[in-house]
Design a protein that fits this description.
The protein is an alpha+beta fold. It folds into 4 domains: 189 residues, Hypothetical protein af1432; 144 residues, Beta Polymerase, domain 2; 155 residues, no CATH class; 76 residues, Alpha-Beta Plaits. The protein is built from 28 helices and 20 strands. Strands 1-2-5-4-3 form a 5-stranded mixed beta sheet. Strands 12-14-13-15 form a 4-stranded mixed beta sheet. Strands 18-19-17-20 form a 4-stranded antiparallel beta sheet. The longest helix has 35 residues. It binds manganese (II) ion. The site of manganese (II) ion has 4 residues, from loops.
């Protein structure tokens, strides 16, 4: 467990002196005296003087070999929040740079009351933290040091707070440290969290490790000597470190492989640090001559660094008596980067406050860009996915390596190659074999994406995409598309409404009446009015009443309330809303449920009720808003009569053969259904995709059609898509 020794300012000054001889010691002394004065009389939960905390944070920053500004900020980081010191006073004492950083850190933790839910607060916290850190990376480094010391002294809080803070640390702060490459902080945070979140497992494992390490000590020392002799007899300068692996990583590995503490090899490992890259590879070769490597366990992170810039060679070899053990090989430079990550060898004076072009900062910035405008839940989810420590490496057919968070799919790959490739992606081949969009990527896959000009994004894709970046691209496409569709629909609705009222929309298009209507709804252009009508926010009858002054028009406002073709106003309604019948009801396009399927209604912005299939992926998100849920049911007899047929789009993949399309269309017509539209695309390879829109009566009818299509020879996959709008003008 982490210890928190009593740190003195002299220790910090001495340490800084070592790695930064021309550092401004006065700044540090001044910050120390100022902090000591302002925090005087304050105590921590532990009963210690409060000053211990900023001093310890400053010490952690000195261990990371940061510049004096960062360390001064560490000493002062709680001043604005916990004492009566003002912003202006700080600026007079310490100048603008230190003050800006302390203000940024204070803002991150100081607005909690302004948000309604814990989740929203948490999300906003991190958003601010990331934002401030892309301006000056020292913000997040001080925040990590602050969190590390708080975790080291967590035992003084009550159990509830311990669990909450440890969980947040494990979910967000440890992964952020990992993404910034700061191994030393990441490991310690994880082990501390492990202790508080899984106390019994941590206790048991640490006891087992201690016992085994004791009994294996001599034997392990011998192995270390053998490695040292191999190095020296080959004239390679290097250091061999035997080390106990971090408890949390041992535990994770055990859970992954579902094994118990079998042997010491699970938690003891060696690290060899040498002077050059060529010495790394030479050492690997020599060790493999001595002990056989375990196939598949050699990892060359020198040739392919991790996204956080980590580099090393990893191998597992079969040791004495057939026991495998792990060895990492790296240069001193790589070692510094593995321990201190973005903070390693960073000279703020030369390069400014953030490393330009550093992939780790680019990642922070990218995360902020892609989650712009997302809800707190979406933001936290994206953050967690993108922070997930495991990465998957895949290859393009040209041999370029792309890395993804574990869980990423073919669709994520396509969007990474190019946004347009993503928009039109129908699937791809993995190592030459055809796979659909939702297939998860695995390490070493060689992936080629197939596209079709007919293919476009739909709402389902949001559940297939695993990264924030992909989702944001899909969302922006959908928003554009929905807006233009709404404009089209709204225009048609208004034209029809005016025609029914004995007038013509065209005659009023640029009139003063319309201009007044736009103003009263806060709209600027006619197109905005079309969109508002198309989205169901303004009923067409409201517009005609306003312009023609004829009072409320009768008849349905929205075409989907009654099923079937335009003008079929006397067809029976297919859906009923329990209770309030004033709602406009429409079938959600994402899942497009057909009569007989289980459905749920949600009140949308404006005044409509969207009806989703109960198992629609979007419903899961909507369930967080129970206040918007509303009871809907299929009207009796909804499935009867031609007027109430639903249109369902089917996506199919096939291996081309003569007569395939005919067989497919026969399958549909043999079930008494009708193909409304069909488009297909066959590639040179003979693989193809077809999208077919068919009419169905209800759920059972659809199931039978799907079944028949599935059985057509050459058909590889039949999937239902939820893009088609029912009825419509
Ligand atoms: Mn603090």
């Amino acid at each position: 467990m982490g210890v928190s020794p009593k740190v003195r300012i002299e220790d910090i000054l001495g340490r800084v002196e070592q790695y930064l001889p021309d550092a401004d010691g006065e700044l540090l002394r001044h910050a120390y005296v100022f902090a000591a004065n302002r925090h005087r009389g304050q105590v921590r939960r532990s009963g210690e003087a409060y000053l211990i905390h900023p001093l310890s944070v400053a010490w952690i920053l000195a261990e990371m070999e940061l510049d004096e500004v960062a360390i001064a900020v560490g000493l002062l980081h709680d001043i604005l929040e916990d004492t009566h010191t003002t912003h202006e006073e700080m600026e007079l004492e310490f100048g603008p740079v230190v003050t800006r950083l302390v203000v940024a850190l204070t803002k991150i933790s100081n607005f909690e009351s302004s948000f309604s839910s814990r989740e929203a607060t948490e999300a906003e916290n991190f958003r601010r933290l990331l934002l401030a850190s892309t301006d000056d990376v020292r913000v997040i480094l001080v925040k990590l040091a602050d969190r590390l010391h708080n975790m080291r002294t967590l035992k003084h809080l009550n159990r509830d707070r311990q669990v909450a803070i440890a969980q947040e640390t494990l979910d967000i702060y440890a992964p952020i440290a990992n993404r910034l490459g700061i191994g030393s902080i990441k490991w310690e945070l994880e082990d501390l969290c492990f202790h508080y979140l899984y106390p019994r497992e941590a206790e048991r494992l640490s006891r087992a490790v201690k016992e085994r390490a004791k009994s294996a000590g001599r034997w392990f020392g011998e192995l270390q000597t053998v490695i040292e002799e191999i190095l020296s007899s080959n004239k390679i300068d290097g250091e061999v470190q035997g080390r106990v692996k971090h408890l949390y990583s041992v535990w994770q590995k055990q859970r992954r492989q579902a094994v118990d503490v079998e042997s010491i090899f699970d938690f003891l490992a060696f690290r060899v640090i040498v002077n050059s890259v060529s010495a790394c590879y030479a050492t690997l070769g020599l060790l493999h001559q001595k002990w056989s490597p375990v196939p598949g366990r050699i990892k060359d992170y020198i040739a392919i660094p991790k996204p956080n810039a980590y580099q090393s060679l990893h191998t597992t070899v079969i040791g004495p008596e057939g026991h495998p053990f792990e060895i990492q090989i790296r240069t001193w430079e790589m070692h510094a980067i593995a321990e201190h990550g973005i903070a390693a060898h960073w000279n703020y004076k030369e390069h400014g406050s953030t490393p330009v072009g550093d992939s780790r900062i680019a990642w922070l910035r990218g995360l902020l860009d892609t989650t712009k405008g997302s809800s707190p839940r979406e933001f936290l989810d994206s953050l967690k996915v993108d922070l997930y420590p495991d990465e998957v490496y895949c290859f393009t057919p040209q041999g370029d390596v792309l890395s993804f968070p574990r869980g990423a799919t073919i669709l994520d790959f396509a969007y990474r190659v190019h946004t347009q490739i993503g928009h039109h992606c129908v699937g791809g081949t993995v190592n030459g074999r055809w796979v659909p969009l939702r297939t998860k990527l695995t390490n070493g896959d060689i992936i080629e994406i197939s596209t079709s000009p007919q293919q476009t994004p739909n709402h389902d894709w949001l559940t297939i995409a695993a990264t924030a970046r992909t989702r944001s691209k899909i969302r922006s496409w959908l928003r554009r598309e929905e807006k233009s569709r709404a404009v089209e629909v709204g225009k048609k609705l208004l034209e029809r409404e005016f025609q029914r009222a004995g007038s013509a929309w065209k005659r009023w298009a640029d009139s003063a009446e319309i201009a007044a209507l736009l103003r009263s709804h806060g709209l600027t252009r006619e197109e905005d009015l079309f969109a508002a009508v198309g989205f169901g926010k303004i009923a067409p009858s409201v517009v005609s009443a306003h312009v023609l002054g004829s009072g409320e028009a009768d008849g349905p406002d929205f075409p989907v309330l009654t099923a079937g073709k335009a003008g079929a106003a006397d067809a029976p309604p297919v859906l009923e809303v329990t209770g309030d019948s004033d709602f406009l009801v429409y079938i959600a396009r994402c899942c497009n449920p057909v009569p007989g399927e289980e459905i749920v209604g949600f009140v949308t912005r404006g005044k409509g009720v969207a009806v989703h299939a109960k198992n629609c992926p979007n419903v899961r998100n909507l369930l967080y808003h129970p206040e918007r849920e509303i009871d809907v049911r299929w009207a009796r007899g909804a499935a009867e009569g031609k007027a109430s047929r639903s249109r369902v789009a089917l996506d199919m993949k096939y291996q081309d053969r003569p007569g395939l399309l005919m067989a497919a269309s026969h399958a549909v017509s043999s079930e008494g259904s009708n193909i409304v539209s069909c488009s297909l695309q066959t590639e040179d390879s003979g693989l193809g995709a077809v999208t077919m829109t068919v009419e169905v009566r209800d759920k059972d009818h659809l199931a039978r059609i799907l079944d028949k299509l599935q059985n057509v020879e050459g058909m590889l996959q039949v999937e239902r898509r939820g893009l088609v709008r029912r009825g419509g003008p």
